[in-house]
Each structure stands twice: as C-alpha cells, then as structure tokens.
Write a structure and sequence with these properties.
Elements: E1 2-3, E2 11-13, H1 53-67, H2 86-93, H3 95-99, E3 108-111, H4 112-121, E4 123-126, E5 129-134, E6 139-145, H5 150-153, E7 161-166, E8 173-174, H6 175-182, H7 184-190, E9 199-206, E10 209-216, E11 218-221, E12 231-236, E13 239-245, H8 253-266, E14 271-275, E15 282-283, H9 284-293, E16 303-309, E17 318-321, E18 333-338, H10 345-357, E19 361-365, E20 373-380, E21 385-395, E22 414-416, H11 431-440, E23 459-461, E24 466-469, H12 477-481
Parallel strand pairs: 1-15, 13-14, 14-18, 18-19, 19-22
Antiparallel strand pairs: 2-20, 3-21, 4-11, 5-6, 5-24, 6-7, 7-8, 7-9, 9-10, 12-13, 16-17, 16-21, 20-21, 23-24
Helix pairs in contact: 1-2, 6-7, 8-9, 9-10
Length: 486
Amino acid sequence: MVRARKHVTFITIAALLSACGGGGDSGSTGVVPVAATPTPTASPTPTAASCSLRDRQDWAASQLREWYLFPETLPATISPAAYTTVSDYIDALTATARAQRKDRYFTYLTSIASEDSYYASGANAGYGFRLSYDADTRRIYVAESFEGTAATNAGIDRGAEIVAIGTNSADLRTVDSIIATQGTNGITDALGPDTVGTTRAFRITDASGTRIVSVAKTDYALTPVSSRYGAQILTDAGEPVGYINLRSFISTADPALRSAFERFKAAGVRRMIVDVRYNGGGLVSIAELFANLLGGARSTSDVIDYTTFRPEKSANNVTAFFAPQPQSIAPTKIAFIGTAGTASASELVIAQAIPYYHANAALIGTNTYGKPVGQIALDRAQCDDRLRVIAFSLQNSARQGAYYDGLGSIMEASCRAGDDLTHQMGDPQEASTRAALDYLAGRSCTPITGTTGSQGTLSLRTPAKILELLTPQRPDTTQREVPGSF
C-alpha cells in the first residue's frame, strides 16, 4: 500500500496500495528532498467526544463524507444501528466503491499505536514467515522467512511445506483437513493470536525431510532488505546486474536501500532487477526514494508522480519531482519482478518508470494487484482509532493511473514467469530471476497475457497453478503491507 508523507496530530496523508494489498503512509525521513504532500487541516475533534460504538461510527462516517475519493458512491443515508462494529459499518459505507473494484477493503479502521510501531521499524509479533497456499490441493507452503525470527531460528525457510498444525505435537491437525472443513480461515485461526508467546507445533516437510517443530511467536522488527539475498550483484554474460528485493516500504528501508545502491554504483551496474513480488506497499516517501535511487539520469524537473485529491480538496494536490541522491544509478534497463501480491507503493515505483524507459522497463512474473489510489490517516487519539481513508489517486508523469486491473495493462514490455519456491529469490536459477536476466540480456521470453479485465487477488500466479498468499479475513497493518505474513 502507499501511504502519505507526513504525520500530524490528526492526519497522516498516506498513499498505500494494499496489499494490501497493503498500506503505508509516507512518513517523512527528513533525508530525501522530494515535494512533501500538503497536510490537510483535520476537522476539529469534539472536546467531549466519547468512545462509544455509536460515537465512533458517527465519527468514521463524517470523515468519509469529507475525504473519501469516491463520495458519489457513499449511501445518502445508512443507519449504524444495524452494525455491531465500526469496521462493519465502514464496510457498508464503502460497499458500492468496493463493488466497482475501486476500494477493495483499502478503507479501514486500525490502531494508531500498532500502525506507528510498524511503519517506524516493522515491529510485529509473529512466527516470522510468509505463507502461500495451493487452493487445488489444499497445501500450505512457506514463501519466505524473515531473518532473526522464530521461523528462521527453527530452520523453517522458503519452500518448506506445513503439513499439520496443533497447539502441541499430540493434537496436530492436517492442513488438508483444516481447509476442507473450515477453509483458509481455519488455517489463520489455527496459527493463533498475534501475541508474544503463542506457541504452535508444526509438521514440516522440506529438503531435509519431515519433522515436528514447536515455534512461539516473538516480537521482531522486519528487515526490509534481506541480509541473505536482498541485495546482490549478479553476473550475466560478463556484465554486472544489480538485484534488490524490498519486502516493505517502511522507514528502516531508507538506509538499507542507500547501502545497496552504493554497492551497485561502485560496481558500475547498468542493468537492474527490482524484486517486489510480495511487497504490499508502504510509505510514499520510501517509494520516491526508490525512484530517485533508480533515477540518476533524471533531472529535477522530471516528474515522479502526481497525487490528486477529489476536486473540493484539490488544494492538497502534489507533484513530486526527481531528486537524484549520492547513491543514485542510471540503469539503461530495469526488470521489475511482480505478482498479484505486488501492490500500492510497489506499483508506484514500477509505474513511474514507464514514461522514461518504455520497453526498457518490463514486468516479470505475473500481473500486479491494481491499487492506483492512496490513503490518508485520520486519527482520534482518545480512542486509539486511525481511520485509513482512500482519499487520492496516483499517476505517473504520463498521467497513467487507472490501473485497477494491475500494471500488466500499461507496461510496454513483460515476461511471464512463475514463483519458484524450490530456489531462493535472487538465485539465477529461480524462475522469475532467470526470466528477469533473460529480459535484460535481450533473450526471448513469453509476455504476460490475459491481464485486461482480470484483477489481482494477492495470488502468486504460475502457468501450472495458483498459489495464493494466505491472508486473514481482517488483516492487520503488517499483513496488509507484508501480505501472507504471520
């Protein structure tokens, strides 16, 4: 997701694609000299406001009527009395926009404290892995494990299959039986609440065989660029190729990205692979930093993106211009690896390259999720309520922005590839990485087809099957920005 650029007492402008797919508000890093999103003036918070259900519902409705990007879709009247939660009422208010595929649960209520914690450092309680599942065979796989977490400490990594889950080794239930009786929501329930100390037993099958491991959820800070494979210099046909995999657009990605691009610059990298296959989005400030690091050939009059609010809020519109950084490179060709788990800020980074690179920028893998809109954050501190409201659209310098069906429809070059769980991401033998190298070298590939009219569903699409990122019915901030994470 893409979020906005600045926190204030009541509002944070956020341009986040959800994965969630995703969300993220563009918290200012104070480093990148890009145009800042104006901070709208929030409506005054009643001094005697309570946190009763009805009061919170009324507050949410009034904010939507003031800021929602699609005001014409809001019902003229709808009583909150029939809804037992604020979230259910918000869902009812945004149902029409949802049916039109403009707001797929991108407008939602969350906790100020937990979201601020995530965007500052990626702080979260969990096992530390990302899960996908095969709907046809009812099987769960580990798509990725994060460094320094309970999962990696237990030896659980990409490609492992979770065969059974239980509170201990004596009450293991097979994944097949859980999905058969309860659907995938049964899996998220079986994984337990996101609280430190929640412990589950897993029967795991991987290259080492089958074993039972007990894993407890711990607090961890997401490493935005993996220390194992996140930034590499590959060699193909005797030429250096930069590879960068960004997990989420959070504040701590700033130094990690700068460090990686400093290495690329020193190595004379002119061809780049940008892997955002599971990236659900995040801070716009980090997306624009990413664009600047790729934009060594851009001038300060070149546009990265346009942020556009509804007409009566147009005073908040912003144009972001390039500001090349000391670590910036000037690649001649870029391969962007994406899937339907690629959303929001990730899509923004890809879309901004199209007018400048044309067919020298390609989408590798499958079509993306399709979230060309962003959120502002409306805060009500006394209730710890943060309302994420779709309030603006995002366009690249060519004014391309209506990619609700994913970027496949506007990319000028693409190569279809699977998400190969038998190899680590960034391995030249991994299917999407291999296709990216082939594209950069001018070797032939099969274009991504069938994207028009088909919307991303946070799936990992391959020619043979669909592996979907496992997502709770009501994902938290981390699961929106890092889809499939538990």
